## 1
Amino acid sequence: MINVGVIGCGYWGPNIVRNFRQIDNCNLKWCSDLSESRIKHMKGLYPSIKFTKDYNDILNDKEIGAVVIATPVSTHFKIGMDALMKGKHILIEKPITHSSEDAKKLIDAAAKNKKILMVDHTMEYSPAVKKIKEYIEKGELGQVLTVDMIRVNLGVFQKDVNVIWDLIPHDISILVYLLGLMPEKVISVGESYIQKSIEDDAHLTLKFKNKITAHIHVSWLDPCKIRKTTIVGRKKMLVFDDLEPTEKIRVYDKGVTIEKNGIPIQNYYDTFGEYQLLHRSGDIFIPKIETTEPLNNMCRHFLDCIENGKTPVSDGQSGLRVVRVVEAAQESLRNNSREVEIRAD
Amino acid sequence: MINVGVIGCGYWGPNIVRNFRQIDNCNLKWCSDLSESRIKHMKGLYPSIKFTKDYNDILNDKEIGAVVIATPVSTHFKIGMDALMKGKHILIEKPITHSSEDAKKLIDAAAKNKKILMVDHTMEYSPAVKKIKEYIEKGELGQVLTVDMIRVNLGVFQKDVNVIWDLIPHDISILVYLLGLMPEKVISVGESYIQKSIEDDAHLTLKFKNKITAHIHVSWLDPCKIRKTTIVGRKKMLVFDDLEPTEKIRVYDKGVTIEKNGIPIQNYYDTFGEYQLLHRSGDIFIPKIETTEPLNNMCRHFLDCIENGKTPVSDGQSGLRVVRVVEAAQESLRNNSREVEIRAD
Amino acid sequence: MINVGVIGCGYWGPNIVRNFRQIDNCNLKWCSDLSESRIKHMKGLYPSIKFTKDYNDILNDKEIGAVVIATPVSTHFKIGMDALMKGKHILIEKPITHSSEDAKKLIDAAAKNKKILMVDHTMEYSPAVKKIKEYIEKGELGQVLTVDMIRVNLGVFQKDVNVIWDLIPHDISILVYLLGLMPEKVISVGESYIQKSIEDDAHLTLKFKNKITAHIHVSWLDPCKIRKTTIVGRKKMLVFDDLEPTEKIRVYDKGVTIEKNGIPIQNYYDTFGEYQLLHRSGDIFIPKIETTEPLNNMCRHFLDCIENGKTPVSDGQSGLRVVRVVEAAQESLRNNSREVEIRAD
Amino acid sequence: MINVGVIGCGYWGPNIVRNFRQIDNCNLKWCSDLSESRIKHMKGLYPSIKFTKDYNDILNDKEIGAVVIATPVSTHFKIGMDALMKGKHILIEKPITHSSEDAKKLIDAAAKNKKILMVDHTMEYSPAVKKIKEYIEKGELGQVLTVDMIRVNLGVFQKDVNVIWDLIPHDISILVYLLGLMPEKVISVGESYIQKSIEDDAHLTLKFKNKITAHIHVSWLDPCKIRKTTIVGRKKMLVFDDLEPTEKIRVYDKGVTIEKNGIPIQNYYDTFGEYQLLHRSGDIFIPKIETTEPLNNMCRHFLDCIENGKTPVSDGQSGLRVVRVVEAAQESLRNNSREVEIRAD
């Protein structure tokens, strides 16, 4: 039975708390938050948990084996280091840190202390995303050509990071997980409409090997909440709408067939000539998706990694990769949308 | 009673024919097409119309007062010039020409010959787009901050122009009409997945005065047909979905209010301090929109301009503006998405 | 080449005209209507067709082989008889007549004169309905238990017949076609809110053999247009939404499994004991449906029957069956919703 | 601070527990359930609550002021009586009892013991339903003509009551609340497809004063979950979709205008003559609805009634009215859908 502490009970923390409480083989012993009112609120919901304003109370409790860090991004590095130094396994909210330098230091510290360092890339634990990975790996969609992602809604406006830091970690972690590839270049455009110098709307183009590209639109300034990913494969196309309660994935048996004079074009590809593009538009398939909550799967995986010495799916390296993409996107943004190379691991 | 001829009965021509046939004060006398099978098909539908493979037969008919040019883009300039030289008023499919040079020559020729030169920017005649313009002009949305446009579906793949030339004229003409502004700069990214060197998927960012930006996604390679425009104003937000049969426009009484310690931020705007962003999320309003077909309105406007010597809403200059944006977008595309200035008229 | 005449160019007639015009192996020679303004309107669209106010002009034309009767229900019988007497094949709008007596006389007259008598039960020619019939016949859905049909919208209010006469012929013809069974009993409730004594909203329950029931809601008084049929089978469930442009049919792999202590209940069905009802909720499948217009298929089938001496799918008997159900529904309505037996053929 | 006990932690009980736990001015002290596994499950979630298999332990605790009865319908009467006899205020799940006789006895016992007797007609505490009541009372919709309600999905199959007992209490309580009228007559049809003699699909027609009718479709056997109410008023129409997360209510500015020769028909209503029915189809309005959970409002109202001696909105009489309608519906069902009069209070 692992004793767990949660540092930060603001926007996301309560979801972490709720999930660890529902898991049998752990004991959520401590929570901390800087705000009295948050502590009061949480205490009302969970009278049996201990609360403190000082996260060191948690780190100093020798019974605590693991801590979850759900605080603002700028504090991730320091709290993470403190926790590792006290011998705790750590689970950090995305993005892992505000710089790749810091991410690397955390990775090193975790390795040296032989502790689990995991990042909460929740989407990698989504049954729908796993299903999509299966489809891609089985070749169901054919070669993936392009991916289009939309993650927009009105607010929540962050004050310390822009919308890119806030939202694209989800999309990057999905992309890298699904394609098994890191993007190599990024072009990003964005604008700050509401807060000075904090972009609230951005569009990114990511370029991968084999001419695969992905486009991501993130915004805090859209009247409709949208969480949509469109994957165009050479054989089939797939749309993932994460807001659909039960019909998250639609597989379209649609594609383009290239012909010449009725004869499949591949035979004549080198010759010069007119060809016709036939659109094939067939059935649509909506697979049943397991309904477990991604966050719950993620929490269980963290405990499983601790108990069985496994490497997390979303480990420190995974967190670092996301930060590298965000940093390059920021660089492009600051340089008039110039194309920027993304450093590999 | 104006006698009208239609040159080109391929993809869009039949819609032109159908509409002119439904209008009382004109007589659709001639149609031409290079393809025998298209002529045979159209003859079956309209036995009282005269058909020819040679459009000069139409231009040489002295009874013909106006011609519509619904042929591939690359032929617009020559046919347009021929028609003007023969003293016909002309209505040209979008985009007006394949270069701004040619567009200017057509404009000059029309002026010199005192003929109407109109471009089929159909969307400017859409009752929904007119309604949106009313909202913007009345200040209903407040200052427009950003516009996001999606125009995607599977096919129709063009063979002589890429997806930018094919689809963004609609969006540019809507934007310029709604905002009353030309975009000043453009960044465009795109990729050709199916046909070599003909982009089938592209994302454009347009920058206007006052930090207004617009983003356009056009694609021939998406499983779902989408025609959606989101306009974010400082007071309200509006979504225009042109595929909705009756509920094309939704006005969201949503916005962001900037406060500081509960006191409206405007009083403290220059001071340094923490502020809070309140999201306001209110009622949604779906106005009743007139159901006349935009194309029908456009055809009637063309005849009205001829008969009453009016300047068309979508005149040659309007056509030229669209081509200037497309040319700049192409330049950006060919230069690794570098930001390109758009020439003013 | 059959010469065709269309009698009645009001609400539905123009659709008939448009379709026969698009078919090669026939010539739409004549149209009639009592209203000058309708004739003028139609003449504008089809200058090559002959128009008259007196349908006898059509019947007296010896070149005319077939007529379509698209007039108000109350006139179907007389015009139908006149046409048969003049040796014309006839296609009559649904419902065939306003009484089963009249329907039988028409059937007899057609048989005696060896002419085709067909009723425009358009839905039996819908590719979607055909697809559903295939699913049922292949046993894909398992035994059909119940069918729920909704056919509502605002207007078009008829003045000579109530909403039952107006709308349920569609649903009855679908049901009889799909199930291969006539309903045996009907209970109907309805109310007249807008016009005195002309019901504008009604609910019918139809009982078939084997405890199969169907429920139909028809209304002229609903803010939303709905055309939806839900078929509950023992193995799967199917929803047919005729307003969906491309996704008309959804097959739900859903059902109920009856178990007792983990052992399938059927073994223990007669014993006394607690059992558990497991809901099975699986994938959803949206088949690609051919996009030909049902009305066009219907028109072609009429011509095919004439030329090749075939019996129409929706022949006079089929028309009579629908009238029998409507008559019984009316009787139930007039008798405080008492259950009424429906006469078999 | 009222101490509360919850009897029954099956399907609905956990929602009751969750809500009372979130309310400050009460203490959820006890829960009971007959099933060990349910108790174990609940204990895991709420370690600070006391659990028992015998509800008498709760009734015998003198600190307990109020109990919630969330057990199967057949046990409501006995447990309710026991609780009232022990001097507890009671909140009972709908329907209040399985017979109107029992409901009246409970009402009398509560009155005699001066205790609050409230029924969990959750929907009467829904902000959306309150909004609709406002619209009706302000005359926004004009005179209500007819109401159509659909409450269907796959399962949850009850074993002691049929789908009418299970589901229509929601709809009846909404109708009586909105219209301020009791239905006077009911016709009901239903069928048992899955369990012998337990109807799983039913359609009811309720007749009120002034020719107002309501139709309710309830089913455990539909592939789609639907919770929809359509209210047709003489001026406007309203659709309430309780599954919509934010857009629960749509007000359609639609209606029928009766005219004669262009002059409003009301002047000529008694004369004989042709009139025209004009459909008016205008804007749609989606009001912002408060997002508090109806169940939470209901729980707070119960505590408020106890503390301040108020009469609950959904008191015993309200519960009795619902049971009277259900009893009449059952009688109609058992008598071949004969129209049955509903006893007034």
## 2
Amino acid sequence: MTGRDGGAELTPIAGAPVVILVRPQLADNIGACARAMANGGLFHLRLVAPRDGWPQEKAWRNASGADRILGAATVFASVADAVADLHRVFATCPRPRHIVKPVLTARGAAVELREIGARGLRAGVLFGPERAGLDNDDMAQADALVRYPLNPAFMSLNLAQAVMVLAYEWWTAGDGTPPRELMTNETQVATKAELENFLTHLVDQLDACGFLRNLPKRPGMVRNIRHFFQRGEVTEQELRTLHGIVTELAVGRRQMGRLEDAE
Amino acid sequence: MTGRDGGAELTPIAGAPVVILVRPQLADNIGACARAMANGGLFHLRLVAPRDGWPQEKAWRNASGADRILGAATVFASVADAVADLHRVFATCPRPRHIVKPVLTARGAAVELREIGARGLRAGVLFGPERAGLDNDDMAQADALVRYPLNPAFMSLNLAQAVMVLAYEWWTAGDGTPPRELMTNETQVATKAELENFLTHLVDQLDACGFLRNLPKRPGMVRNIRHFFQRGEVTEQELRTLHGIVTELAVGRRQMGRLEDAE
């Protein structure tokens, strides 16, 4: 509970990692981080020595309703204090130098964070201050570093974007949505018999109007038409529309034919 | 060329999709989108009917040096105009309703965008205005919709975050960084012989100090120590440090022993 407006009905998800902002400078950014966390299902936020103190009204104004995350955030004096109760700690770091440490991609980190959570262990991810990033002592507290694969010609994530990518990857690592699926909403994918019924209707009308009058080419033309309509899943609703289109075009042609006959 | 400061040395990457912001409202957000694009290696930005006109100084101020993307951005009066030269169009859309259309995850879209680019075709991704999102006519221009898997209890991406996730996924789809690797910098992973050399040193000293004096337990204790040091890759530099630690601790103990003997 935040004691403020309340915002979105956010609750912790079991096994999710803690986000630890180390010496964050701007309350705006803390709010934007909370918003990014909420999008990716993260809840527990820890602040190490926030420059302007805590709480800060500006954070709430920039959180788009992720108020409960801010309300539940806790403040620590040092990274060591903030990670004391955790079992595994990762540190985000764009350009680590002179360090011997495992380096994970954001996706690799997300998969490991899911595994750590599934074992009932508590994990946290450190994010450094806006300009300087984490210092060498901060990174020495971490089991592994996380470096996002990004355009080396322009690696300039702001703090909330860095949290966003991690939160997005964490959510995605537990998500089973297929990479592509046909959304049909109120209708459903037509059976092959329903599609065949439409193709028979279409070919009958194309025969009637003379479109298929070249008999040697007719089988190939019918096959091409069939290939086109088979390319994607067709829904029952779309087949009804296609039936209507063929019928109406054919009626128009027949009426036109009658008019021409009458002239 | 932007005719302004110039910013980062960004250039188009072959096969990358075009980002199309449809009726964007705030120039700040257009700048933030350019920054997000640059992070993910995207370059071509199209604006459909930007509310406040174009160019806008505020966009440059919020782009963190992605000036060339803004300088090369083009403006169109309609979505139809903006997609006219493209072969495939995806539309980002958080909650599509009453539409029959393939829906891709961000990752699924990224993989398909890479494939489209590799075939030499041009693709674009539509992003709707800040509050309203894309309307039904906009979505009817697209081959497929893109819906990010995110926390259904809080799906509130701002425009630049939406672009960020897509750009990040596009970059990642072409990136071969292993999910986890040991960064060794100036040193390198030690060979098993080098590790064995250290373990021999350690066990010798543990024998000398009496730590392993329980002979029935000795083999298991040595094995556990071995397991610990085998758990992660150890570097040559770390082995030198470990040798030094064992030597110095042993020297201290021997000196202490001599002092005690002398008393």
